[in-house]
Specification:
globular, three-stranded antiparallel beta sheet, single chain
């Protein structure tokens, strides 16, 4: 069984949150500010992936700087996995090349952050085994290294849905707004839930 993919969104001081993302033993975390629609961007980016886009991205405002999430679909060969794996990359404000940050694929809004999710599907992909400088549990908000992993699209979506469902249960939508300073991303969350159900139905018909 593949190691679980999870994202943890922890509300802190008013208008701030810590986002931790991990796949198995490999992970990183970063700070996010309410001045940008990070949660909505993150959820919407994954909706777009499930709809068939090859690459999407989202931003977290860090004041100063911007953390960049990128998602790139890895097309499976004929007879391969039923669900296309997705390369997930996280670039801190001073990380990544200018090309990464200027290309339409990496720069277009599309997703943002989430709370808690377990993505341990038997068919889920494990952490990529790339450069050790690009993964680790202590990346932190000030890290200059990129973090990356490969995970199946459905596993990614499930982790984010569970994450924000747990946030809503823990704080309530009014409590979330009081701590975060912006409304709970209910519309984006329900869009992702529907997109995941539709994606799974299409996959089962293959």
């Amino acid at each position: 069984m593949a190691a679980g993919f999870r994202v943890v969104w922890t509300l802190g001081a008013h208008g701030w949150a810590t986002c931790a993302v991990a796949h198995g033993a490999h992970g990183t975390e970063l700070a996010a500010s309410y001045v940008g629609p990070g949660p909505e961007e993150l959820l919407t980016a994954v909706v777009r992936l499930l709809a068939g886009e090859d690459g999407t991205s989202a931003r977290f405002e860090a004041e100063p700087g911007t953390h960049l999430w990128t998602f790139r679909r890895i097309r499976a060969a004929a007879g391969g996995p039923a669900d296309d794996p997705v390369l997930v990359r996280l670039l801190p404000p001073d990380g990544g090349s200018p090309a990464d940050r200027e290309s339409p694929e990496y720069g277009a809004p599309g997703h943002g952050s989430a709370e808690y999710g377990d993505g341990g599907d038997p068919d889920g992909a494990g952490p990529d085994g790339g450069d050790p400088d690009h993964a680790g549990p202590d990346g932190g908000a000030r890290s200059t290294a990129a973090w990356s992993t490969v995970v199946e699209a459905d596993t990614l979506a499930r982790a984010l849905v569970r994450c924000f469902d747990d946030v809503a249960r823990a704080h309530g939508e009014d409590g979330y707004r009081a701590l975060w300073g912006a409304p709970f991303p209910r519309t984006a969350l329900e869009s992702l839930r529907r997109a995941r159900h539709e994606h799974r139905a299409r996959r089962e018909r293959r």
